[in-house]
């Protein structure tokens, strides 16, 4: 397992982390707790020691499942990353990074996670209604109290990160990043490299588009967020599927790899990327992790070929903006 250091966290962190949004069930068609626990345990057995969750994932459900899976003898070896700054009422989510909300969320998270501390505590979305300085000062207090080890942010711009970092030590940023969603290459990743801030990217397989398993006939039902994602609506859906097929053919023919292996290795090979989060709901969805972390890297020529494939097929691209809560 490739590992990196994140300031404030005493153990080296695996370069692939387990993302648990889907495990929470909300917007993913429900959850299976025993299967979810087996998935977390399987990830740990593979050497993945970063488990990323959030209160809003299933409105506490994901954190509860993570707590059941990692409490006990394994806790000291597991890096738990959770978040704060989102509130919900009647199934609707909105931003709230006030001092009171941050502190209350942490206490609730510690209870659900069955732990006395959180290794990485991240502000889930920037809240323009609360001064970033206020949020940062409260996070710094929680760090001084020993309840959190490191401070992170998610979905922040460089300007927003700079304001928060002026009042608290910023250890990490979590932006969306994958072959189909590359907006942070322009600003967030360069800023983090320069500032010495680790990056934990999410959405590695772009909600399944880069799994190699989808077709034009794939349907989404219930509260599945892909029903609202513009990538999964025509004509864009066809463009992304065509790009995925071309990438899969390139990976198989040129590299002897799967599309998933190519997609995650591509992320890890990008300048400024520290960790890629891998979302899974079943243990078998983790099978390709050992194949990604090995003595192989994408060459500059191969990276250029990948860019050409994307340019040829994705003519009407769109980012992950639809996920932003009000």
Layout: helices, strands, pairs:
Blueprint: E1 3-4, E2 13-14, E3 16-19, H1 33-45, E4 50-52, H2 61-70, E5 79-84, E6 86-89, E7 92-95, H3 99-113, E8 118-123, H4 132-144, E9 148-154, H5 158-165, E10 170-174, H6 188-195, E11 198-201, H7 236-255, H8 259-268, E12 275-279, H9 289-292, H10 300-313
Parallel strand pairs: 3-4, 3-12, 4-5, 5-8, 8-9, 9-10, 10-11, 11-12
Antiparallel strand pairs: 1-2, 6-7
The general outline is globular
**The first-level CATH class name:** Alpha Beta
Order of SSEs: EEEHEHEEEHEHEHEHEHHEHH
> How many domains in all?
1
Distance between the termini: 38 Å
Question: Which class best fits the helix and strand makeup?
Answer: alpha/beta
Strand order of the largest sheet: 3-4-5-8-9-10-11-12
CATH H level, superfamily name: NADP-dependent oxidoreductase domain
**Counted beta strands:** 12
- What does the radius of gyration come to? 19 Å
CATH fold label: TIM Barrel
Count the helices. How many? 10
**Overall helicity:** 25-40%
Task: Give the rounded overall mean pLDDT.
Answer: 94
Percentage of residues in strands: 15-25%
Unreliable spans are none
Major sheet size, sense and barrel closure? 8 strands, parallel, barrel
Quickly give the CATH architecture.
Answer: Alpha-Beta Barrel
């Amino acid at each position: 397992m490739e590992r990196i250091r994140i300031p404030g966290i005493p153990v080296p962190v695996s370069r692939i982390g387990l993302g648990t949004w889907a495990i929470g069930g909300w917007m993913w068609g429900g959850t299976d707790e025993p299967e979810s626990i087996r998935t977390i345990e399987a990830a740990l057995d593979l050497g993945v020691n970063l488990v990323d969750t959030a209160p809003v994932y299933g409105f506490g459900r994901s954190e509860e499942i993570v707590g059941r899976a990692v409490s006990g003898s394994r806790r000291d070896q597991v890096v738990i990353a959770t978040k704060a700054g989102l509130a919900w009422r009647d199934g609707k989510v909105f931003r709230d990074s006030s001092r009171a909300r941050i502190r209350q969320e942490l206490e609730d998270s510690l209870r659900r996670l069955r732990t006395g501390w959180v290794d990485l505590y991240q502000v889930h979305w920037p809240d323009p209604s609360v001064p970033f300085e206020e949020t940062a000062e409260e996070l710094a207090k929680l760090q001084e109290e020993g309840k959190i080890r490191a401070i992170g942010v998610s979905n922040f711009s460089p300007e927003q990160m700079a304001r928060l970092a002026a009042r608290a030590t910023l250890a990490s940023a979590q932006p969306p990043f994958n072959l189909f969603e590359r907006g942070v290459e322009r600003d967030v990743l360069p800023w983090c490299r320069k500032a010495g801030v680790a990056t934990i990217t999410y959405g590695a397989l772009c909600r399944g588009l880069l799994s190699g398993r989808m077709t034009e006939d794939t349907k989404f039902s219930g509260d599945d967020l892909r029903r609202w994602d513009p990538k999964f609506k025509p004509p864009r859906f066809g463009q992304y599927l065509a790009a995925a097929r071309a990438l899969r053919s390139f990976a198989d023919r040129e590299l002897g790899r799967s599309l998933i292996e190519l997609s995650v290795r591509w992320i890890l090979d990008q300048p400024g990327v520290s960790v890629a989060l891998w979302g899974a709901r079943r243990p078998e969805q983790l099978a390709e992790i050992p194949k990604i972390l090995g003595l192989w890297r994408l060459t500059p020529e191969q990276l250029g070929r990948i860019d050409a494939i994307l340019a040829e097929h994705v003519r009407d691209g769109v980012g992950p903006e639809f996920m932003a809560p009000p």
